Amino acid sequence: MSGVRTVSSSSANAKSYDSIMKILLVGDSGVGKSCLLVRFVEDKFSPSFITTIGIDFKIKTVDINGKKVKLQLWDTAGQERFRTITTAYYRGAMGIILVYDVTDERTFSNIKQWFSTVNQHANDEAQLLLVGNKSDMDTRAVSTDQGEALAKELGIPFVEASAKDDTNVNDIFFLLAKLIQEKIDSEKLVGNTGRDGSVNVGAAGNNSKSNCC
Ligand SMILES: Nc1nc2c(ncn2[C@@H]2O[C@H](COP(=O)(O)OP(=O)(O)OP(=O)(O)O)[C@@H](O)[C@H]2O)c(=O)[nH]1
Predict the structure, then answer these.
(1) Residue 147 has pLDDT above 50, yes or no
(2) Which residue(s) pair with 190 in the sheet?
(3) pTM to 2 decimals?
(4) Which of the listed residues 34, 102, 137, 159 should we mutate to test ligand 1's pocket, taking the one with most ligand atoms within 8 A of CB?
(5) Which of 25, 28, 35 is the pocket-test mutation for ligand 1 (most atoms within 8 Å of CB)?
């Protein structure tokens, strides 16, 4: 994708980036959230399924329009029993990726529920993105048209991807980071980095830096 370039996939020190973006992945258990993250950050794929317990995170620094942006990527557990823990992390997220599995219709129909949970717990200004994963598989149950139609209905962008064969995985994260950056540049979203590297996010109108009336 033009204007976007990977800088490093290791933990960056405090002086090696211009800004931080907190991004969350949500969706049913088994749709491939962890695999998308591992593919993006480590360029690896494992066919074995190790379910996420609670929450996990990885870091990757990318170049967006000449600025070094540290992506703080939070991988939430899809299992219902962790829902109380995971929803606590929605607040402050600048970007949220809703993932379903194109071979599993149930994970697709559950996206509306994920969308509503996100709207309930996340900041109004968070940028959302719908991802249909496992596009490499022949046993498809959800068509690309269905994915596009749902994204249109929800008013969010859509990407089909495969963590396994590395289709569109970089595009997911770079597209989201670019959209977040555009919101920051247009002052719809404000991110402040705390001393510990944590990010506080708010709508620009709620932030003291905004030129509010
Ligand atoms: N064929 C194929 N399999 C995939 C793909 N992505 C993930 N998988 C497989 O799907 C299974 C679940 O992947 P995970 O990434 O652990 O799923 P998750 O969404 O993180 O699951 P939870 O941690 O329980 O929420 C694993 O066996 C993966 O190997 C893909 O793009 N293609």
Answers:
(1) yes
(2) 202
(3) 0.86
(4) 34
(5) 35
Residue 162 token pair = 């495969």
DSSP codes of every residue in 60-96: EEEEETTEEEEEEEEEE--SGGGHHHHHTTTTT-SEE
Task: State the complex-level ipTM.
Answer: 0.99
The residues pairing with 199 across neighbouring beta strands, listed in sequence order, are 193
Distance from Cα 177 to the centre of ligand 1, integer Å: 23
137 CA distance to ligand 1 centroid (A)? 12
Q: pLDDT > 90: what percent of the chain?
A: 74
Query: Residues 160, 166, 170, 176: is their CA dihedral positive or negative?
Result: positive
Alpha carbon of 182 to ligand 1 centroid (Å) = 30
How far does the centroid of ligand 1 lie from the alpha carbon of residue 66, in Å? Answer: 33
Residues 156-183 pLDDT 10s:
999 999 999 999 999 999 999 999 999 9
Which domains, and CATH codes, for the chain?
A: 19-186 (3.40.50.300)
9 Cα to the center of ligand 1, angstroms: 21
CA distance 191 to 93: 10
**Burial of 53: CB neighbours in 10 Å, binned 0-12, 13-18, 19+:** exposed
CA geometry: angle 171, 148, 51, nearest 5 deg: 60
